[in-house]
Amino acid sequence: MAAAGAAGGDPFQQKLTRVTLWLKKLYEDVPIPVYEVNERTVEILHEVMECNEERDRDVMLLIEDMKDQTSKYEAEADYWKDILGKGLGLTEDSLSEEATKDLSDLVESALELDVEDTSLTSFYCAINDMTSELYETKSENEEMELKLKTLTKKLTSALMVEKQLEEDIEKLEKSQKAEKAKAEAQSKNLNFLEDKSKDLRIRISDAEDQLVARGLDQSLTHEALMKSSEELAALREKIEPLKMELASYHDLPPSIPLAQVMVEEARRKLKALDEELTREIEAVPFELT
């Protein structure tokens, strides 16, 4: 044991002395293990020593009580043996094998049931208590089985839901992959079309510049033709209501002078629009598709 003890007061030295004597008693002829001697280790060992001594005292009291109970039981056994032997002439040798067996069964039953004596009342009370405990245990087991079945059903349902969720997630992932691949393809096609459109616009512009440089009329360029096409469509839209109005005039009675004047006026307007439309058409060298 380490001898480098801390310089403490009398209480520390007293505890250290008690701990040292206790360790020597505990280890007997075996050397005491080396430990660092300070106030903390001595305090801990002192508490352990007190707990150990208190436990030893409790054990000694229990042993003494058991010895006392043994003496009482032995005295009572001698008493009953004396009564049975002298008063009734019953000894272990005089009992038949069957009687000895029944007596042994009676003793074992009394010990198993933990009865105070071997009277019928004690046996009945003990059996009733054990029956009550059996029913209570059975009831608890049934309750536990019911809970187990409920938990099993819930677990099965949860596993099925989990499996369904996994399948849904797998389907969703496949769908997302397909949508992603489709979106990427569409994006590539869109980029291609945009690049192609830019290239065509550049080529059309270059071709128009070349044609203009060679003496092509500005009215024949793509932009001018598009504008002419829009104007032509607008004129056709204007003609349609006039044609409808003229058709309504055809239903008027020919004998009414005012109707004739209105018809002639409508015909004149229609003729003027037809001539204007003809001029516009003749100005276009080819038809746009």
TrEMBL record:
Keyword Coiled coil: yes
Source organism superkingdom: Eukaryota
Keyword tRNA processing: no
Name of protein: HAUS augmin-like complex subunit 1
Main location: cytoplasm
GO cellular component, one term: spindle
Compartment(s): Cytoplasm, Cytoskeleton, Spindle
PANTHER family with a match to the protein in the record: HAUS AUGMIN-LIKE COMPLEX SUBUNIT 1
GO BP: cell division; centrosome cycle; spindle assembly
Coiled-coil intervals: 127-283
Similarity-based family: Belongs to the HAUS1 family.
UniProt-listed InterPro entries: HAUS1
Keywords: Cell cycle, Cell division, Coiled coil, Cytoplasm, Cytoskeleton, Microtubule, Mitosis
